[in-house]
Fold:
Amino acid sequence: MQSSKGIISDTIGIKAVPLGMNTLSTIDIFASKLMSHSYPTQPIPAVGAVVFKDQSVLLVRRGQPPNLDLWAIPGGCVRLGETLQEAAQREIWEETSIRIRAHRPIYFFDTIDRDGEGRIRYHYVIVDLLADYVEGWPTAGDDALEARWVTPTELDALPVSEATLNLLRGEKRKDAFPFEWR
Structure:
């Protein structure tokens, strides 16, 4: 509902916000209330990018749940109007400072996490794309605690998310990667 002073919505707890304020915009507040990542009202579309360089794969250590402190393929949520490729390129840049060129989907999965009462705390539908490394050095950003290139041997010593292990070590990977990655 529009007022002369701003936007008012009783249903999600937003009060009148003066237009032209130099703080969080009303739309940002509205969007964060409407599309909360925890306890969502519907599945959240997300994307990841599988990037190789010199026989290593780009991974991040997650700084947010789900998979907090686990190493995983970098990625994040798809924004309205973005293609999967655009979302992957943006997310990998935000999380790792690496520029990529995203290509075809190679892995699909969902992450559903329930709380102690059985309520759905997180529900992501994730598409991982194969991507080419373009430039940059891994630097943790956004919600990543660390970002780095990981060799197959190093992967075995790290706490890695189940989906990432399934992707990198699973049988389906044989046809997905441009070379044999063990």
